[in-house]
Specification:
Elements lengths: L11 H6 L5 E5 L5 H9 L4 E6 L2 H13 L5 E5 L14 E7 L15 H8 L2 E11 L2 H14 L2 E6 L6 H4 L2 H7 L4 H8 L5 E6 L1
Parallel strand pairs: 1-2, 1-4, 2-3, 4-5
Antiparallel strand pairs: 5-7, 6-7
The chain binds S-adenosylmethionine.
Length: 200
């Protein structure tokens, strides 16, 4: 462990979750609808919501406590520092849920190469990244990043509920139908929801 690394780096299984189950991150989790929703559904996996805004995460954390979910936690940090929190191969999957599209700052998009390279340092080989967004800009720019850097697309749609969701098995459909706070806001305004599942 390097100086500046978080005490649980490399020890989330043993010291936080106290099991060897896979760990899934929701980055920019807000209230943590995916972290909590997936934790309910998959007791044999662990989930961590990550966000800089504590008041939002508090809502998901309280739900988890109220429901006695012991496979979900929350981490308050800037994602720029995420490398200090997780060790090589510690994470199995990442969800990016309605991340800010950062119109004028492409390098700050959570699917930009600089971030993906950070995720690769702790994501297991073949580990999956899910991106769900209302933003055409974030969707298109992520597809460009994928093509430029040779990541592999597993699923991709620019209209999740209009097309892809009907073709999926029930389990996958129910997962993708988990609606986050921002998803509900943007769906109500008529924005199409986009989804990309890819490996890096
Ligand atoms: C548009 S909101 C989406 C929240 C939630 N995933 C949802 O769908 O309702 C983006 C979230 O990402 C968080 N966020 C953005 N940039 C971040 C960063 N660099 N580090 C940590 N959190 C960040 C914000 O605090 C905010 O909660």
């Amino acid at each position: 462990m390097k100086s500046g690394d978080f005490a649980l780096k490399g020890k989330w299984h043993q010291e936080f979750f106290k099991n060897d189950n896979p760990i899934v991150l929701e980055l920019g989790c807000g209230k943590g609808e995916y972290a909590v929703g997936l934790a309910r559904r998959y007791p044999e996996k662990n989930f961590l919501g990550v966000d800089i805004k504590g008041a939002r995460m508090f809502i998901g954390a309280k739900q988890a406590i109220d429901e006695n979910l012991n496979n979900v936690g929350f981490l308050r940090t800037r994602i720029e520092f995420i490398h200090a929190f997780f060790a090589e191969n510690e994470i199995d999957e990442i969800w990016l849920t309605f991340s800010d599209p950062q119109p004028n700052k492409p390098k700050k998009r959570l699917s930009y190469k600089r971030y993906i390279d950070m995720y690769r340092a702790f994501l297991k080989p073949g580990g999956i990244v899910h991106l769900k967004t209302d933003s055409d800009l974030l969707y298109e720019s992520t597809l460009e990043e994928i093509a430029e850097n040779g990541y592999q697309i597993i699923q991709d749609t620019n209209d999740l509920y209009g097309t892809l969701v009907h073709d999926l098995d029930q389990e996958t459909r129910e997962i993708l139908e988990i609606r986050t706070h921002y998803e509900s806001l943007f769906s109500a305004k008529g924005y199409k929801i986009k989804y990309i599942k890819f490996t890096i």
